[in-house]
Specification:
The chain is built from 2 helices and 2 strands. By secondary structure, it is mainly alpha-helical.
Length: 76
């Protein structure tokens, strides 16, 4: 139970940190290259920033979970 809680917290932190990075990358990309992109009733850098946050946060959750799964197996 303790390992699951630690794994979950680390995965959420990874997800949030990578989500913020994805927001910045998506905003940069949308502002420079995808000005006509539309998502969630917004256009350009706002839309690509949202997409970047979602994709990077999901990747961060998965990466954080896998990272901690390997770490907790080594401790056993």
């Amino acid at each position: 139970m303790r390992a699951f809680l630690i794994r979950s917290v680390v995965a959420l932190v990874f997800g949030f940190v990578l989500g913020v990075i994805g927001l910045l990358v998506g905003t940069w990309f949308g502002g420079n290259f995808a000005t006509g992109f539309e998502f969630n009733s917004v256009r350009g850098y706002e839309a690509t920033g949202q997409v970047g946050f979602i994709l990077f946060a999901l990747a961060g959750l998965i990466a954080g979970w896998e990272f901690m799964e390997k770490r907790t197996k080594k401790l056993r």
